[in-house]
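Q&A log
Question type: sequence-to-structure
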Amino acid sequence: MKDKKVKHGLKEVVALESKISRVDGEKGALEYQGYNIHDLVKHSCFEEVVFLLWRGFLPNKKELAEFSEDLKKRREVPQELIKLLNILPKDIHPIVVLRTSISYLGSLDKDLHNISPKQTLE
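Response status: OK
Response body:
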């Protein structure tokens, strides 16, 4: 037990190996799919970064337009959820409202048990 070195915090602990992101704590660097986070912040919009994370590459103009349009179509809030939100107590914590809403939206998924990569992106 004497020669066992205790590592405090997460220093030198690999929690996960990922092809999506890379963290260099010594240099204070974060990369997504090989792109420095500071470059992405300066030169990319939210939808471009989501596309990069999901697809592995930055979109061209046509791909970005199609992706943005698809996301826009998915932003409509179902009437059933609005009804649920209206009957929740007005004094509950916002996180409870968020958790309840997400759980309810999950129950509306007609293909809930299909966890294929394609369906997960849907």
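Response note: The first strand starts at residue 21 and ends at 24.
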